[in-house]
Amino acid sequence: VFIAQSRASGSHRDVEDEELTRIFVMIPKTYTEEDLREKFKMYGDIEYCSIIKNKTTGESKGLGYVRYLKPSQAARAIEECDRSYRAILAEPKNKSSESFEHDYYSNSMRPELRGNTLPFCMQPEFCSFEKADTRIQEPVSKRLSVVSRLPFIQEQLFALFDLVPGLEYCDVQRDPHTNSGYAVIQYSTAASAIYAKYKLNGFEYPPGNRLTVIFLEDGNDSSE
After folding, report:
1. Distance CA 110, CA 130 (A)
2. Dihedral angle sign, alpha carbons of residues 116, 119, 121, 126
3. Quick check: helix, strand or coil at residue 23?
4. How do residues 62-74 score in pLDDT, each as one tens digit?
5. In contact, 74 and 44? CB cutoff 8 Å
6. For residues 92-110, b (16+ Cβ closer than 10 Å) or e, as one string?
7. Is RNA-binding found in the keyword set (predicted)?
8. Distances in whole angstroms, Cα of residue 70 to Cα of each of 49, 63, 181
9. Percent helix, strand and coil across the chain, each rounded to 5?
10. pTM of the model
């Protein structure tokens, strides 16, 4: 896992504490904190585990945090844990948990949900999730389309998308009539493409120019 860090993030210790050692995961609602620790302790030394609960009923929302002692352990957990956990680095604590949960549901998971089949139902313990989450039926692939009102510079766009591991190629094209930017990006795995779309769709590059990033059909079975 390659992690890029903003120069404005503060001291190294602050960055490590807030951004590189906590992961955010989707779990069955029946999980306890002990269950969560048991599933993730194989990847490193865990400082604490916590499960997000409904403030009114006290029931689990099916989401949790795992905090490791080292960034490398958090990175290993993200790479090696079962994909059904949808593990990502957690946002710093200065961002509200409600906002982060909303972003996580909207951008990280729903693009993979199609039809009436829940992706977790390969394992019965995950089937308690609401079928309402299947309403977005966007096909997922390893290939992305990037559109901008300004033309792209090949080297700069490649460097931007290469921050996400697994970039295979970046093909920049230009419309001679509108001078707008268009590019096709392909990653080695759909997971990398999903993460790139999640992070870079709506990103301003250069500042003031928003990128639109969508999936392109790559000819593979998107159900994987």
Report:
1. 12
2. negative
3. strand
4. 999 999 998 889 9
5. yes
6. eeeeeeeebeeebeebbbb
7. yes
8. 15, 22, 40
9. 35, 25, 40
10. 0.42
Neighbours of 134 (CB within 10 A): 16
Of 191, 195, 198, 205, which Cα lies nearest the Cα of 158? 205
Q: Tell me the sheet residues that pair with 85.
A: none
- In the chain, the DSSP E strands lie at 22-26, 46-53, 60-68, 88-89, 143-148, 167-174, 181-187, 212-216
Please give the pLDDT value at position 90. 81
Give the residue carrying structure tokens 């308690």: 128
State the CB neighbour count (10 A cutoff) for residue 5.
12
Domains and their CATH numbers in the chain:
17-89 (3.30.70.330), 143-215 (3.30.70.330)
Q: What is the side-by-side strand order in the sheet with 22-26?
A: 46-53, 60-68, 22-26, 88-89
Task: Evaluate the omega torsion of the peptide bond into residue 206 and state whether it is cis, within 30 degrees of 0.
Answer: yes
């490193």: which residue's tokens? 44
Full DSSP string of 130-165 = -GGGG-------SEEEEEESS---HHHHHHHHTTST
Using 70 as the pLDDT threshold, list the residues of the chain that sit under it: 1-18, 92-138, 175-176, 219-224
Please count the residues of the chain.
224
Q: What is the pLDDT of residue 97?
A: 56
